[in-house]
Design brief:
Number of helices: 5
CATH architecture: Roll
Order of helices and strands: EEEHHEEEEHEEHHE
Radius of gyration: 15 Å
CATH superfamily: Electron Transport, Fmn-binding Protein, Chain A
Strand content: 25-35%
Distance between the termini: 25 Å
Structural class: alpha+beta
CATH topology: Pnp Oxidase, Chain A
Low-confidence stretches: 1-5
Helix content: 25-40%
Shape: globular
C-alpha cells in the first residue's frame, strides 16, 4: 500500500496485471458483464461495509475501491456507494461512468448538490469535499481512468452524456 501526498492510501486487493484481472476488466467492459456488476453492487456494498472497505465481492483484481458516503440530493439521507478511485497527487478522482448508461449515477448528483462527503478506504474514514471537474481538468481525469482500466474506454462510447469526473480533497 502506498499513499498520496495527502495520506489517502492506494489500497488494492490483489493485482491488476494478472490474467484473471485482465479477463475481469474485459468482462466488465461488455454489456452483460456491466449488468452483472450493477446487480452485484448491493452485495458488494455490504461486503465492503462489513470489511471496512478492505474486500469486495468482485474479487482481488487490483482495482482500488472506496466507499463513498454522500448526502442524498432529495432525501437528505446518507447514501453509501462502492467506487473505483485513482490517486492524483493531493486528491482522489472518481468518475460517474454508470457503466456507460444514459443517465448519471445518483451518487454523482448527490455530490453536485451536497459536496461534503466521506470516503472509507481500508477501514479509515476521511471527510472530503467534492469538486466537479470541467474542461481540461475533466479531460485529464477521464483520460487517467481510460488509461487505468479498459472498461472506461468502452463506457465513454456507450453514452452521449459527458461523464462526470470528481476531485475529492480532504475537508478542513
Amino acid at each position: 500500500m502506498s499513499a498520496s501526498e495527502n495520506g489517502f492510501p492506494d489500497l488494492r486487493w490483489g493485482r491488476g496485471d494478472t490474467k484473471a484481472a485482465r479477463a475481469g476488466q474485459w468482462a466488465v467492459s461488455t454489456k452483460p458483464g456491466s449488468w452483472i456488476v450493477r446487480t452485484m453492487v448491493p452485495i458488494d456494498r455490504w461486503i465492503l461495509k462489513k470489511s471496512n472497505g478492505r474486500y469486495t465481492a468482485l474479487g482481488p483484481f487490483g482495482s482500488p475501491l472506496l466507499l463513498l458516503t454522500s448526502t442524498g440530493s432529495r432525501s437528505g439521507l446518507a447514501r453509501t456507494t462502492p467506487l473505483v478511485y485513482l490517486l492524483n497527487d493531493e486528491e482522489i478522482l472518481v468518475v460517474g461512468s454508470n457503466f456507460g448508461q444514459a443517465h448519471h449515477p445518483a451518487w454523482s448528483t448527490n455530490l453536485v448538490v451536497h459536496p461534503e462527503a466521506m470516503v472509507t478506504i481500508g477501514g479509515v474514514v476521511y471527510k472530503v469535499t467534492a469538486r466537479l471537474l470541467e474542461g481540461e481538468e475533466r479531460e485529464q481525469g477521464w483520460n487517467m481512468f481510460e488509461e487505468a482500466a479498459r472498461p472506461y474506454q468502452v463506457y465513454g462510447t456507450r453514452t452521449d452524456r459527458t461523464i462526470r469526473v470528481f476531485s475529492l480533497q480532504r475537508a478542513g
